[in-house]
Structures are given as C-alpha cells and as structure tokens.
Amino acid sequence: MRIVSTSGRNNLIFQLKLRESKVHYMSNSQATILVIDDQPGIRRLLTEVLQDEGYQVITAANGYEGIQAAQSAHPNVILMDMKMPGMDGITALKELKRQGQGDQVIMMTAYGELDMVNEAREIGMRDYITKPFDIMSLCQIIHNNLGTTFGDTRQSMIG
After folding, report:
1. 11, 96, 108, 136: least CB-packed within 10 angstroms?
2. What are the φ/ψ torsions at residue 100 (nearest 5 degrees)?
3. Which domains does the chain have, with CATH numbers?
C-alpha cells in the first residue's frame, strides 16, 4: 500500500494504491475495532492498517450506521470521527454511552476542537487523537487501550 498525503488549506487528499481485490476482513485477533468516519478514504486506510495489525475491522460511514454496527458487533474499540454530517461524534458517543459502549470510544478530532474534546471526556470517551495523526501513534493508542503490544514501525500520516 502506498500512502501519499498532500495538505491543503482545510483538507488532506489521500491517494491509496489498494490491492486489486476488495478489502478482506481478517479475524486473526480476538479484538474487533469499529471505525466510524464519513470519509471513505480514511475508512479504507484504517481498515488496511488495522487488519495488518491483526484486528478484525468493521466500518461505518456515519453515526447512525456506527451505532447499529456497535449494537450487533460489540467491538472492543470504537474509533470515531468527531465531526460527521447527520449525527456528529458527540451525539453518537452519547447514544453509545447510553447503550453501555461509550467507554470503548477513541475520538479522532481536528486540532483546535478542544471544547468538543472536553465535552467528549465528560461523556466518557476512552481516548482521542488529533488529526492529522501518525499511523504509529494511532496504533499505539489502540494497543494501549486494549492492553496489547505494538510492534509496527509504519510512519504514515492520515487525517
């Protein structure tokens, strides 16, 4: 996989050279991670990276889909974007918390959204990472929250 990041004024453009086959879900690990993000490129990239780490990965394109996926899959970690159209991360976090799954949430947020981070902390999110973020740092946060060991040396940026 080749990851190229080009910073723009308010966005990042990602070019992914994916395998010719469709994304495969690996289940080598007991841990399942639910990725909730409205950007398809982020979902694809995180799926590949986390599968390479041995996790089973489920994705959702928005808060509504994410809540449904969490209800059926009972993931060990929920990696969720803070700002999404429709139902934002804060609203989704409140609903996940109401269902007993809010403390599995690691939020992805843009730099400068400290008010939202503080609100998410009060609701009960587990952790957060600021976009754009280093893949290695994200994997380390996930591993720390799951109590697993991180051994990958990837240094790609996503956000």
Report:
1. 11
2. 90, 15
3. 27-149 (3.40.50.2300)
**CA 19 to each of CA 16, 46, 146: distance values in angstroms, whole numbers, following the listed order:** 9, 14, 28
114-123 and 89-98 are packed helices; what angle lies between their axes, rounded to 10 degrees?
A: 10
Measured from the Cβ of residue 13, the count of other Cβ atoms closer than 10 Å reads 10
pLDDT in tens, 33-87: 999 999 999 999 999 999 998 899 999 999 999 999 999 999 999 999 999 999 9
Amino acid 106 reads I
**Which residues on adjacent β-strands are paired with residue 3?**
16
**DSSP secondary structure string, 33-68?**
EEEE-S-HHHHHHHHHHHHHTT-EEEEESSHHHHHH
Partnered with residue 36 across adjacent β-strands are: 60, 80
Question: What pTM, to 2 d.p., does this model score?
Answer: 0.74
Planar angle of CA 159, 34, 145, nearest 5 degrees: 80
